[in-house]
Amino acid sequence: MKRSDIRSKPMAERVVAALEPEDKAYRVSDGAGLYLYVRADATKSWELRYRKPDGKYSWLGLGSYPDVKPKEARQRATDTKELIAKGTTPRQHKKAQEQQAQTASRETVAALMDEWHGMKAKSVDANSLRKVWLSIQRHLIPAMGHEPISRIQPAYILEFFRKLEALGIHATSAKIRRALAEAFDMAAFAGRVSSNPVRGVERFIESGKGSNYAHVTQQEVPALMRAIDQYPRSPQVRVVMLLLALNGCRPGELRQAAWSEFDLENGLWDLPAERTKKRRAILMPLAPQSVALLRDQYQRSGSFSLVFPNRNDPRKPMSNMAVSKALEHIGYAGRQTGHGFRHILSTALNERGYNADHIEAQLAHVTGNIRSTYNKALYLEPRRAMVQTWADEIYGMIGAANNILSIQKEA
């Protein structure tokens, strides 16, 4: 078919297919600025004639025929004109898309988690962060670290956490979920993702609540304390377990304690901010029973800087598994953990009607009160009376309430 035989626009596909080449290439209008370019070798392609923002006309290729059918070519032309109406050119739009694609390829989950890690390092206890980071490196990064954050959807997140759920590692899963949610919050507020795909996923997975910080009931506490007092394998570990029960401190903060932090004459433990979970200094009152335990421990480790040194290298703290192994040895595996002593103390003191603010201060919980952030001695004297009464009660369970010196025995 000759181009002179065309009778209507837009052209039917049979017309496009039948157009014959000429000695020189030519264009034939399909309407609305769209043209079919027919070359002398009979190849054909679609081109759009458009006006640039500077007022000059230019041509843009929209694909070759028959790969691009007339209907698709018209849609491409419409889309392109819409871009031009918004003040950009097709070439600029294509370049912007390529740049976005390059940015997305760099904005991976692994890169986002590295950024999160750097942010948390400024405010979280190094040991606690290290544990979470190891879990992230072990489970999260291999699964989705390479994925651009813009492609992560809630369904993908749900599938990942259900796999962790199937492994039974609920506590680890919860830590990873909280970290990932915080990281995506950071990205969402910066406009790097439209929404946080992690938020709400906890409603559709098992929490395994209670599996991480197992603790016995209040009725079982006396038997537990007697079993701890009789623990035969390590006097040092026995002291640690008793101090955890007496004071409700975090196991990691106690394991890493240095002698320089203690004023035994005045019954005080001054934890520096850099060693606490919430990165704020804590002043803890010590009952005479706790002081006696520490004086006993000084006979073993007073020549070292650490109160509870590692048996293989006294420059390092005792193993974080020591308490777990000891509790397992006395028959409390799965029933009581080192951190679980905090739950025991909290429940007992709340049941006995102590002031909730005093209990929270003893547990070093952040309450949002500005005063609590800066005053490490908050409620010191009421807390001293509170821990003294609790210590008396604990040693009443053990049977040594009136004989503090008996706790200095060697097992």
Automatic annotation (TrEMBL):
<dbReference type="GO" id="GO:0006310">
    <property type="term" value="P:DNA recombination"/>
</dbReference>
<dbReference type="InterPro" id="IPR011010">
    <property type="entry name" value="DNA_brk_join_enz"/>
</dbReference>
<keyword id="KW-0238">DNA-binding</keyword>
<keyword id="KW-0229">DNA integration</keyword>
<dbReference type="InterPro" id="IPR002104">
    <property type="entry name" value="Integrase_catalytic"/>
</dbReference>
<dbReference type="InterPro" id="IPR053876">
    <property type="entry name" value="Phage_int_M"/>
</dbReference>
<comment type="similarity">
    <text>Belongs to the 'phage' integrase family.</text>
</comment>
<dbReference type="InterPro" id="IPR025166">
    <property type="entry name" value="Integrase_DNA_bind_dom"/>
</dbReference>
<dbReference type="GO" id="GO:0003677">
    <property type="term" value="F:DNA binding"/>
</dbReference>
<protein>
    <submittedName>
        <fullName>Tyrosine-type recombinase/integrase</fullName>
    </submittedName>
</protein>
<dbReference type="InterPro" id="IPR010998">
    <property type="entry name" value="Integrase_recombinase_N"/>
</dbReference>
<dbReference type="GO" id="GO:0015074">
    <property type="term" value="P:DNA integration"/>
</dbReference>
<feature type="domain" description="Tyr recombinase">
    <location>
        <begin position="211"/>
        <end position="392"/>
    </location>
</feature>
<dbReference type="InterPro" id="IPR050808">
    <property type="entry name" value="Phage_Integrase"/>
</dbReference>
<feature type="region of interest" description="Disordered">
    <location>
        <begin position="83"/>
        <end position="105"/>
    </location>
</feature>
<dbReference type="Pfam" id="PF00589">
    <property type="entry name" value="Phage_integrase"/>
</dbReference>
<dbReference type="InterPro" id="IPR038488">
    <property type="entry name" value="Integrase_DNA-bd_sf"/>
</dbReference>
<keyword id="KW-0233">DNA recombination</keyword>
<dbReference type="Pfam" id="PF22022">
    <property type="entry name" value="Phage_int_M"/>
</dbReference>
<dbReference type="Pfam" id="PF13356">
    <property type="entry name" value="Arm-DNA-bind_3"/>
</dbReference>
<dbReference type="InterPro" id="IPR013762">
    <property type="entry name" value="Integrase-like_cat_sf"/>
</dbReference>
